[in-house]
Design goal:
4 helices, five-stranded antiparallel β-sheet, alpha+beta
């Protein structure tokens, strides 16, 4: 199966992500970025829009920090047939949101950062490591 077929299967595991009753898929960096060459699939509001490769490199470096357990890419929509879209990544960390924000360079700085899942939204199951919390980085 090609990369698009693999990612399509993975994203639709619990239902179609455009269906509001489907929990948001939470992909690993590797799942979302490997094979992704679709500009605008993440950070689409930034000018210039960074390539997925550039965003991937930055996020892999953030994931290597001692305070970070993982980074998950929330699939927000799959209305482009070439690749799913994300406007939010979740940094699983012991750090607060302002610290996480400081780790991201200006060329991929999110519009907002906050701590904790959004209570009104459903997400794929994720076992939170002890002492860690989800910190969202959201691009409008």
């Amino acid at each position: 199966m090609n990369n698009l077929g693999t990612i399509t299967e993975r994203v639709n595991r619990n239902g179609h992500p455009d269906d509001p009753n489907t929990p948001f898929p939470l992909l690993t960096l590797e799942e979302f970025f490997e094979g992704n060459s679709v500009d605008g699939s993440i950070c689409c509001n930034l000018v210039p829009c960074p390539s997925p490769k550039d965003v991937y490199e930055v996020l892999k470096n953030v994931r290597e920090r001692e305070e970070v357990a993982d980074i998950l890419v929330q699939i927000t929509a799959f209305d482009d047939p070439d690749w799913p879209f994300s406007d939010t990544i979740w940094v699983i960390t012991s750090a607060d949101s302002s610290t996480v924000l400081s780790w991201l360079p200006g060329n991929i700085e999110p519009d907002e950062c906050w701590e904790g899942w959004i209570e009104s939204q459903a997400y794929e199951e994720y076992e939170m490591p002890e002492g860690k919390q989800p910190v969202a980085c959201w691009w409008d």
